[in-house]
Amino acid sequence: VYEVATRAGKSVPTLCYDPRLEAFGSCRLCVVEVEGQRVPVASCTTRAEDGMEVTTASAKVEELRRTLLELVASENREVAVDALRGVASQELGSLIDRYDAGRGRFAGAQSGASRPDDPNPFILRDYDLCISCYRCVRVCAEQEGDYAISVANRGFDTQITVEFGGHLQDSACTFCGQCVQTCPTGALADRKALRFAGDGTLNG
Question: What are the chain's domains?
């Protein structure tokens, strides 16, 4: 449904979606109303069918998206994220502005411990900005077949981590940069790009 809607020019927000990856449906921001369905459904994981009547932007759907976005934003510290962190790094901030979503309404979960001390020269791991969308985990597995990035624990204790909790350079990571380019928050960043801009700190 999501792909049909976007081809028709409808603006349906997402955070966990990447067209290269299998639909996951974790962020739920892409919810739509389908005639005959009791509750809104995730459009990215709902198969389009002939004759299906879909509403992509009712008042109910937009308010639900705003609430879902506030839940997501509660995991993410409020800072200006440098666009040099990656091509997708502005997605969360843009949606927060679009929906005027507040970050303080819900108590946030910990998405992972930041690893500014990771000695690799290529990828900055700033998990204070992470929202657990799993795009980095999935692109590493589905596109590269490396499985260097993984998920530890469950629920509010869920964390994005590297295999065995170590450093990237000691893992199966090839530093291809796919995780950086798919990250919608800048939690993973290109160290070289930040250094080129004169900013190699976590505040970039």
Answer: 2-73 (3.10.20.740), 83-196 (3.30.70.20)
